[in-house]
Amino acid sequence: MGVSYPRLYIQQLAVGFTLMLGMGLPGAFLPILAQELDPIGVLVGAVTSAWFVARIFIELPSGILSDRIGRARLIVVGLGLSVLGAFICAISTTIYALILGRTIWGLGTAFFFANNTALMMDMFEGDARARAVGNLQGIEFIGSFIAAPIGAFIAEKLGYYSVFHIASVMILISFSMAFLSKELRRVAGRARQPSPDRSLRKDLGNLKNWKFSVICIGVMTRFLVMQGVMSTIFQLYLNQSLSFSIENIGIILGVRTAGFCAATFLSGQFVARKGTKLLIVGGLLIQILCLYAYTITGDFNEILAIGLVDGFGSGAVSVTLVILLSEAVAPEVRGTAVGVYRTFQDFGGAMGPVLFMFVYETVGRQTSFLLGSALLFASLVLEASLGTGKHMRVRPR
Question: Which residue among 129, 310, 323, 384 is least enclosed by CB atoms within 10 Å?
Fold first, then answer.
């Protein structure tokens, strides 16, 4: 049976797509630009980490506020901060200004994605939720797929900072769509928890279960590796070790994102039929093998093929973790749960670039990829302990 999608869902697809398009434009060259501004490895890692550092302290409060005052206000605030952060990056002349811009930009996306994810959980149930989440992430990451090669091409022709100016405009479009949306205010402007006896202690108590704990550890490990290796080390490795141009790096990232998009569209259908366990274990296994494969070839076409498969595995895990999250907690605390989940995600994203830059510079470039594989394998073992994950319901305590 087909799923009927409300108007707000279609609108949020458009907002998310445009936001991701703006976010993805600098992806091919960001660590390279950072190293040109200042070659100190810790600062280069901090440019990527800055995206997540401020978010560590805002994700949980954002989730709690979302349950109490509604999703709409925080979605709009998040998009506004994202515009400001992108503009600061566009006018930055030092690595410290770039770090500041990335911090504010990341803070804004924390407000947006946490509340938009909770909104999707509110709007759908069961199989429809799995398909809706898969479609949403797929559409959003099509923006990244388009953005990476476009941003690389613009950087080669017009310079790095022109890319940030264009990104600012794209995100401003997202902000305008959300700010002017009457449907968003109507559906997501109300509190989910009007009861005055609710407390943070009670909400967090409702999250105490093995499944939710494993999900949070899994997303932290995944972002530790993905941000440390694939968003920092990978570009430097391709440019410095394999002598690939910025444009070629953009193409590789675009193809990898294409695999991610394909997985997000297909994963919702797969989960609805087969459950989550097979998909998440398979996706992690694919990523583990691909991280190793990057170290044994320098051929452009082979790297492209590995990137496509790697992206597919990453997309499968991304969608599955969100679906597992929605099944592991009660509806009354979904906003809080998303906040906790994304806090763990941000810890991984903040620590990963600095950790892997240290390994990259002191131990060896290829060792960074092998360490990433080892960490993902540990996560795979934990995720394999979970059940099938088909439409579990958890009652609040």
Answer: 384
Contact at 8 Å (CB) between 107 and 85? yes
Read off the CATH number of the domain in which 314 is found.
Answer: 1.20.1250.20
Cβ proximity of 356 and 233 under 8 Å: yes
Q: What secondary structure letter does DSSP report for 25?
A: T
- Confidence (pLDDT) at 205: 66
Tokens of 20: 């991701």
Q: Is the dihedral of CA 157, 160, 165, 170 positive or negative?
A: positive
Q: State residue 394's pLDDT score.
A: 37
Q: What is the pLDDT of residue 126?
A: 67
Q: Does residue 275 form part of some domain?
A: yes
Is the residue at 397 inside a domain?
Answer: no
Is the pLDDT confidence value at 390 over 50? Answer: no
- Does the residue 263 lie in any domain? yes
- Positive or negative, the CA dihedral 114, 119, 125, 130 is negative
The H-assigned helical ranges of 226-299 are 234-236, 246-274, 277-293
Nearest Cα residue to 384 out of 283, 270, 263, 310: 283
Query: Angle 368-315-341 (CA atoms, 0-180°, nearest 5)?
Result: 80
Cα 171 to Cα 15: distance, rounded to the nearest angstrom = 9
CA 64 to the chain's CA centroid: 20
Which pair of structure tokens corresponds to residue 255? 């193809």
Q: Is 305 exposed, middle or buried (0-12, 13-18, 19+ CB in 10 A)?
A: middle
* Mean pLDDT to the nearest integer, 229-234: 91
Q: How far apart are CA 255 and CA 252, in angstroms?
A: 5
Domain that includes residue 355, residue range: 7-191+199-383
Q: What total number of domains does the chain contain?
A: 1
Condensed to tens digits (0 to 9), the pLDDT of residues 286-318 reads: 999 999 999 999 999 999 999 999 999 998 888
List pLDDT tens digits, range 171-218. 999 999 999 988 888 877 666 554 555 565 666 666 778 888 888 999
Question: Six-digit token pair at 296?
Answer: 């044994």
Residue 92: in which H helix or E strand, if any? none
Residue 1: inside a domain: no
Per DSSP (E only), the strands in 59-174 are none
Distance, CA of 41 to CA of 70 (rounded, Å):
41
Mean pLDDT of 87-108: 93
Q: Which of 314, 29, 260 is nearest to 140 (CA)?
A: 260
Global pTM reads 0.73
